[in-house]
Amino acid sequence: MLIAPAKGPESATRPELGTFDAALVVVHGMGNAFKSQILLEWAEPLLERMDWVARDRIIGADETHGVTIHDSDLSGDTPIVTATVRFPKHRDPDAADAAVETVERRIAILEARWSESFVPMTRAQVFRWAVPFMWRAITRTLGLFWNTMVVLSWLTLGHHLRAPRETLLLPRWLNLVVDLIRVVVSTIAFVVVWTFLVLLGVVLTPILPLLSPLLLIPWFKDLAQGVLDQLVESIGDVASWKERPVRASAMRLVVRDALAQAKDLVGDGDVHLFAHSQGAAVATFALFEELDPADFNVRRLTTVGAAVVLLGREKWQGRKDVYTPVKTWIDRNSANRREGKPHVAWSNHWAIWDPFSAGPITDTKDAARKRWQAAYFPSASTIALGPEEHAVHNTSQPWLDHGVYYANTVQVVEPTARHLLGDEFPPVPQPVEYIRNRLVVIDKKSLGLSTIAAFVIAAILPGLSGASALFAWLIQAVADAVAWVIGLVPGLDGSGAAASVAFLIDRGSTPPRLSTIGWVVASALVAALLVWLNQLMQKQTERSIVWDRCPLDVRTWLVLTAIPRALYVFGAAVVVWFAILDWWEPQPDTGWLVVSGVLLAAVAVFVIVEPRFSPAPRTVPEQETLEATPRVVPPPEPMRLGIAIASDEYRRELAARRANLQPEGAWATWWAKHFHGWTPDATPAASDTTVI
Fold this sequence. Notes:
Layout: E1 2-3, E2 22-27, H1 37-54, E3 66-73, E4 80-88, E5 102-112, H2 123-162, H3 172-214, H4 218-243, H5 245-266, E6 270-276, H6 278-290, E7 298-304, H7 308-311, H8 325-338, E8 345-351, H9 365-374, E9 388-392, H10 409-421, H11 430-460, H12 465-487, H13 496-500, E10 505-506, E11 513-514, H14 516-546, H15 554-583, H16 590-613, H17 641-646, H18 648-659, H19 666-676
Parallel strand pairs: 2-5, 2-6, 6-7, 7-8, 8-9
Antiparallel strand pairs: 1-5, 3-4, 4-5, 10-11
Helix pairs in contact: 1-10, 2-3, 2-4, 4-5, 5-6, 6-8, 11-14, 11-15, 11-16, 15-16
């Protein structure tokens, strides 16, 4: 609806049925979820991003636009957040001088929390079930890592060999060298990961069934019960979903009730269903197998880190455990289309290191392979049935990727927010969207590589002779300082301070060095410091992409953000070189030291530039039929950074953002002058400046 500009924020009002334009139902993943936990996890970043995009001056926004929160009921039977978003209506590019029309869209976000809707299984039942499930999860994880680490490297090499010279960033021979190094390094890394995961599975296979009986031993119960209870709490819901159909039905009932409440709130408006992890399996089954989405006005299903394929459906004795979610979704849409009911779009986001989603959602392994390849190198041979697939980069760290989709603003949060805002919200020009996505990929890959470099430095540095002596001196100096301070207090003896750190120092060497325990402790502290600094720098580089109203031009950003990565990687190379010099027996000759230095430098350079030259994933459109002309037609010229930077759309947007610069403070003014050419007499652009 179109309205006149508001005079100010509305006062909070209770949600009224049928008055909302859109409602989002969020469903949590495996494990116990506290009331309003999943609601806050997603409502806060979604509304924050909606406010940011709605107040963007280059779409014609001003201070009257943005988000107004009405209700934040976090303790009711169904926690809910309601808000109004005001933004300039999308204008025809040929009518950019037309007056700004403001759209007001009322949005409700509510949660479906199913974790307390059933009685959990016992520890013994969960641990007996966990062994075959663990091997299924390990197998799928290894398949994902094989594709991400090895197959993608080979596909990139083949693509570069076939690509015309003018589309390559480097000379063909140099591209071949880089690609071969990537293949070798990735293959070695995969072998290490495969060995670790398989050995872990072998070790846990006989242990898991014994954990519950071992709790009968008092000392073991005191030691391990807390950890085991947390483990059961995490995977017990999964076991209940697969092994107990009645409890699985109770989970789905919660989703149905939340959809019914959302339908009451929107009337004829749109309902969106958003689900994470196991919640995606619960929501998908409920929506397409048991319900008619049209009855609840569901227009879109969004899944993140979806365990739809991993978990499938509940298991009944005597029934075939066959589940085809894609076919069910297509059949449901086909039936509704024949009856004149609306289509249900399905967007699936999976992180490339997420072991639980482990890639696209499909009904067959062949379709999964095709759609995975289509995320990087689409062709006529990669077309397969499935929802819209988004391969995303969360942290580039397998142990974190599954739980932080809500922190991926560009690739997950903003697309979801724009779906809720509807078609009247101004879109982002395609080259600009590509640039932001590509820079996020580079940034997250850099985070992962710098983290690996940090662990290499931390593991080796305290063991080097000079560094070990320095750490030992530093520990002793701190202990002596503490003893001196204690000695200043009458009646206290600080001599025990030095004795308390004696186990960290080997005094039998000259000069004193770290003991083995001291080495481990120092490595842990150095790793914690380096990882913290790395994450701190990455937050700043990511913020410059995601939240700066006037971001740096792409080439400047690439250079500046490569500096911390280079420091970490070259630091790791230097530490490894000194380790060769210090530990190699017999002492290596000068020629070998030179050769090893050159090889380490070459590897360091490759690691530094790899995020810039490696392929970035693209969106795979949803595919509901393979008949006639395929809906997915790969572009003849894939978008690249150089093409996007040279585009008129990107140049116009950057110019518009610079024209709107109003720096406040000495640092912001200095930054604007040196990186955006801002001058003190620059006049801010009018509020209706737009490039869309």
